[in-house]
């Protein structure tokens, strides 16, 4: 028997998946196909193309001479990948691989290369890095990885419905926080986690980034955004690891999302993408602004 569900709550999605004995991704693909009045294969193919775009960002994003248009950033992904390739990573190949991929996608975005909004341009490196690294480390199929993106999209849909994905509305918790939650969901499903584990991973990822401000230096999505993508994917792996170990979130995911909305509403406008507060207002932040804009 199929159960009614929608993007108003993650709990309804989890309950429907449990009732039907399927993954969240299976549920979402079927629902999207019905809503779009298209065959499931066509909807899957569109997501497959998105995944390919994500994959194509890594190599150019790791170029040693990559520089953003502003000249403020570039080359960090190259350094991180070289460290990983040399076996010098403190955290092993899984984490170092995720870090350099998150930096690569973000730096390519800043250099006006291929832009992947996942769910936003400012948080574009987190989800691609999580899924691509899982595929590399666990030798997963393209199909499983593409399906995990459907699960991630469901999480993003619930957050968009109940809170916000925009830094201008909710701070960076809404951008990198949402992306980390989506990535944690994808990692958990790819690791064989249950729908409830997916929900717990989402809650843990969001709780750990709750209240993060959006303070782009010089108003550009580069500093500190790019490094926050690396931090965000690390947080996604932490959340997934805890959930997969059977550790529950004391606060349900839907309530964490509600809390994120309330925190964002209470946040000063100076801390919501206006570049008027936080790191953007520091002496060095102001110098960088003058360097770019004169």
Number of strands: 0
Helical residue percent band:
55-70%
Q: What can be said about the biggest beta sheet?
A: none
- The assigned structural class equals mainly alpha
Mean pLDDT: 96
Task: Give unreliable regions as ranges.
Answer: none
Helices and strands, in order, run as: HHHHHHHHHHHHHH
Strand proportion, as a percent range, falls in under 5%
Distance between the termini: 64 Å
Number of helices: 14
- C-alpha Rg, in Å? 18 Å
Please describe what this structure looks like.
The longest helix has 21 residues, at 142-162. Helices cover 64% and strands 0% of the residues. The chain contains 14 helices and no strands. The chain starts with 9 loop residues before the first helix and ends with a helix. It is mainly α.
Outline the secondary-structure elements.
Blueprint: H1 10-20, H2 24-36, H3 40-56, H4 58-61, H5 76-85, H6 92-110, H7 126-138, H8 142-162, H9 167-170, H10 172-190, H11 195-207, H12 225-244, H13 253-266, H14 283-293
Helix pairs in contact: 1-11, 2-3, 2-8, 3-8, 5-6, 6-7, 6-12, 7-8, 7-10, 7-12, 8-10, 10-11, 10-12, 11-12, 11-13
């Amino acid at each position: 028997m199929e159960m009614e569900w929608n993007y108003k709550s993650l709990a309804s999605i989890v309950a429907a998946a449990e009732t039907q004995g399927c993954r969240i991704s299976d549920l979402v693909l079927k629902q999207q196909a019905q809503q779009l009045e298209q065959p499931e294969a066509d909807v899957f193919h569109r997501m497959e193309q998105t995944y390919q775009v994500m994959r194509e960002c890594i190599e150019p994003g790791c170029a040693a001479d990559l520089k953003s248009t502003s000249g403020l950033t570039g080359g960090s992904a190259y350094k991180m990948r070289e460290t990983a390739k040399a076996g010098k990573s403190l955290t092993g190949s899984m984490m170092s691989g995720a870090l350099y991929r998150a930096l690569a996608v973000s730096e390519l975005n800043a250099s006006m290369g291929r832009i992947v909004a996942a769910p936003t341009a400012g948080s574009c490196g987190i989800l691609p890095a999580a899924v691509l690294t899982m595929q590399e480390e666990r030798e997963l199929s393209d199909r499983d990885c593409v399906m995990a993106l459907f699960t991630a999209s469901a999480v993003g849909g619930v957050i968009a419905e109940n809170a916000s994905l925009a830094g201008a509305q909710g701070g960076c918790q809404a951008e990198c926080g949402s992306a980390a939650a989506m990535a944690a969901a994808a990692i958990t499903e790819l690791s064989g986690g249950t729908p409830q584990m997916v929900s717990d991973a989402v809650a843990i990822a969001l709780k750990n980034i709750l209240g993060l401000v959006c303070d782009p230096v010089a108003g550009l999505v580069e500093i500190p955004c790019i490094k926050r993508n690396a931090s965000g994917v690390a947080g996604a792996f932490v959340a997934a690891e805890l959930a997969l170990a059977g550790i529950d979130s004391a606060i349900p995911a839907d309530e964490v999302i509600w809390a994120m909305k309330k925190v964002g509403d209470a946040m000063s406008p100076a801390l919501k993408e206006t570049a008027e507060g936080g790191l953007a207002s520091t002496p060095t932040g102001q110098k960088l602004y003058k360097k770019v804009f004169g």
